[in-house]
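@channel sequence for tomorrow's demo:
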Amino acid sequence: MQNHKITVVCGENEFEIDGVLGGRGDEIIKVLFKDTNDVDAIVSIAQDEKDKIFTLYMFNPLEGIMPLITRIISSGENNVVFRIIEERSLIQRRQYYKIKTNMYTIFDTLVYSKSKKVLINKVHAGKYFKIANGAKIVGVRTYIEPIMIKIKEPLNVRIDDFSGGGLLFISNKKIKIGRIFIYTFHDGNTCFNLKVEILRIKRKNSGDYAYGCRFIGTKRREEEYLCSYVFRKQAENLKR
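structure tokens (generated this afternoon):
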């Protein structure tokens, strides 16, 4: 069972606490918490008001967001068990594929690809390595080597849409499709670089250009973090 993230929301944004899925049946769901204070806070509110409603936003990176309307039925040292009253419609991944943003950033690095050929020798399990001294040459393999180049005149852009797989940015500069830039993602908690490839371009009425892009070469943990970031923003929009 995967530890899907769950955000517990009480009332009209009284508070929200993050946990992970500890188990689920047809009518009940267990949420695990790192901090026992989180459990105490949830239980305290439930005791103060009988039949208090809690909304659980369960995040599955492969499927989407599942909102659940629940009430508490029991608690442990690091967990709370909720009874599911209503299961709302799944907000599928494609539905929160992008969120509206108004972020400004600078693209100052281009990425080019350079072909590089190396001699190889075959070893056990069919794996290939660069040729070593005395090893028999069995062929040549071509590798693609990325080259980073700083731009003389960095681009100041506005990011209008953002998703776990790409973004849309606005610029007054005309840029070729296929260009790849380095975008530094940061949300106050973490920071990492993403390769952004331009797939399409559209001229806006204002005269600016809108560029639809995808992320390439994204690491698994980075993709999961981006999906989690989009989920958090989507959940915030749902609660407004």
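heads up for whoever presents: The CA atoms of residues 111 and 148 lie 5 Å apart.
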